Amino acid sequence: MRPTHRAAAWRCGLAVIAATLACAATAQANDGGLYIAGEGFSFRVAAERALANNAGGRRFFLLTLPSEAAALRRNAPASQARLRDRVLASGGVLLVCQRDLDQRRIDAATLVPEVVPVRGWPPAGSSELPPGRRYFLEEDPANLPASNEALRRLRSTCA
After folding, report:
1. What are the residues whose beta carbons fall under 8 Å from the beta carbon of 15, sequence distance 6 or more?
2. 158: phi > 0 → left, psi -120 to 50 → alpha, else beta; which?
3. CA atoms within 13 A on the CB side of 57
4. Nearest-CA neighbor of 46 among 19, 67, 16?
5. pLDDT digit string, tens, across residues 19-53
6. Are the beta carbons of 98 and 121 closer than 8 angstroms?
7. What is the C-alpha to C-alpha distance for residues 130 and 132, in angstroms, rounded to an integer?
8. How high is the pLDDT of residue 8?
9. Rounded distance, CA 143 to CA 95, Å?
10. How many CA atoms, within 13 angstroms, populate the side-chain half-sphere of residue 26?
């Protein structure tokens, strides 16, 4: 390859890398954050904080632990159902830990269909989540945070 072709190839490669990084940064910038209902925060408090911090329509994530899961049930009290519906209408993604479903601390059959189960970290030595992978095979990345920090916090909470 001649020097001018090599330089053009490098510039093209750098442009592709820059575009990829810009897309990743945009995805992370467009995501709100991760809010957790339970362990000291009621569903109402976590949902209202998420709505206030993401008023511009950014996608955000609301993880609900078993102590606050009543708001995610089809037969939730009207005030909780209205707040849950506001979260969904504002771009919120409702999450629960898969381990809580597996251990029957939350009954999956009673939840509204928009609730997304999330797995925690796999056991040590497991190949379920290979090094360098962010998602399990059955997970839809569109339902989870683009931010590495938010995803790490989510997995740690659900481990």
Report:
1. none
2. alpha
3. 0
4. 67
5. 333 333 334 456 889 999 998 999 999 999 999 99
6. no
7. 6
8. 41
9. 9
10. 6
What one-character DSSP code corresponds to residue 156?
Answer: H
Instruction: Domain ranges for the chain, please list them.
Output: 31-158
Specify the amino acid at residue 91: G
pLDDT in tens, 111-155: 999 999 999 998 877 888 878 888 998 899 999 999 999 999 999
Q: Which residues pair with 141 in a beta bridge?
A: none
Using only the alpha carbons of the chain, give its radius of gyration.
19
CATH topology of domain 31-158: Hypothetical Protein Ychn; Chain: A, (3.40.1260)
DSSP for 65-109, please give it. Answer: -GGGGGGGBTT--HHHHHHHHHHHHTTEEEEEEHHHHHTTSS-GG
Q: How many helices and strands in the chain, by DSSP H and E?
A: 5, 4
Other CB atoms within 10 A of residue 138 CB? 8
